[in-house]
Amino acid sequence: MLLESIIIISLLTIILIFLIYLIFTKDKKNDTNDAPPLVIQTHLSNLQQAIQNSSQTLTQINTILLSPLQRGKLGNTQLEHLLSLYFPNDGKAFQLEYRLKKPTGKGGFLIADAFLFGLENKNNLAVDSKFPLENYLLLNNQSISELERQAAEKNFKHNLKEHIKKVSEYISEEDHCPHALIFFPSEAIFAKIQEKDYESIRQYALEKKVSLCSPITLAIIINQILWATKTWAEYRNLDIVLLELRKFWEEMVRFQDRWEKIRENVLKNNKLTADFDITVGKIIKQAEGIKKHEQKIEKKSEDEPIIA
């Protein structure tokens, strides 16, 4: 596997550095039969300890990957970490070990490793984090023959197909779950399934409405869910807004009609007011003329003598 290769390369690098050290310190030895210097003994002890630790690490990794129970825990742990990284862990966005409402037909209920709740509890998504790995590990074993490798790959494809069929049982109308997801916590396994020879497996998964994903692709799916949630939150009241806009337009039409009537009355009243103003102006002028004539008469009367 990739991890084993990295560890082996690291060990070889340590050994190479140690050999170079021996070459450069060889000319400093006075007697080749003398015991190695203390520093060399220390390096040898550290190197031996590192090899032992690496061997134990590889053994532990293989034990985890070969044990279905431990493998399931590893997948669940990584899945929980990714979901908690993006979603609030309040039980509303997702739940782990979620019991579906869909019965198994044997008196029990299906349990998904994780269950993502969609908008308004619709378009939910069931996630399975277990993965068939035994034949995949055998497939990458360098000590087996080509025939054994071909048999392992055939069995690995069969395992995948059976697991896809099993996970597709999570899809149910009772849980508003139209789609399911298989989470592979290893990018190497996911990359293997993306090879050309696995086209039939991927097509079978699509037919069963089951998506295959790795940690990276799961992050992409989560981002799409978050984007959809945000968009829905922004436009969730769009129908109400459109209804209010229709009401506003109806009121606007009534307002325009009534304004036209008021405008006509105002213009008509303005005409009446203008005509009345002209009449008032004429009356005022006539009154002023009468007032002036009266004043002239009074003045004339004052100027003429009174005859007894």
Explain what the structure shows.
The protein starts with a helix and ends in a 5-residue tail after the last helix. The model is unreliable at 29-33 and 54-64 (pLDDT under 50). α1 packs antiparallel against α2, α2 crosses α3 and α3 (68-86) runs parallel beside α8 (215-235). The chain has a domain at 70-238. 66% of the residues lie in helices and 10% in strands. With 308 residues, the protein is α/β, with parallel strands linked by helices. It is rod-shaped. It has 9 helices and 5 strands, in the order αααβββααβααβαα. It has helices spanning 2-25, 38-66, 68-86, 134-139, 146-167, 187-193, 199-207, 215-235, 238-303, and strands at 94-103, 109-116, 125-128, 179-183, 210-213. A hairpin with a 5-residue loop joins β1 (94-103) and β2. It has a 5-stranded mixed sheet.
Give the topology string: H per helix, E per strand.
Answer: HHHEEEHHEHHEHH
**Strand arrangement in the largest pleated sheet:** 1-2-3-4-5
Question: How would a crystallographer describe the biggest sheet?
Answer: 5 strands, mixed
Averaging pLDDT over every residue, what do you get?
A: 75
Q: Any idea what the shape is?
A: rod-shaped
- Helical fraction equals 55-70%
Strand content: 5-15%
Number of strands: 5
Low-confidence sequence ranges: 29-33, 54-64
Structural class assignment: alpha/beta
N-to-C span: 153 Å
Number of DSSP helices?
9
Round the Cα radius of gyration to an integer and report it.
Answer: 46 Å
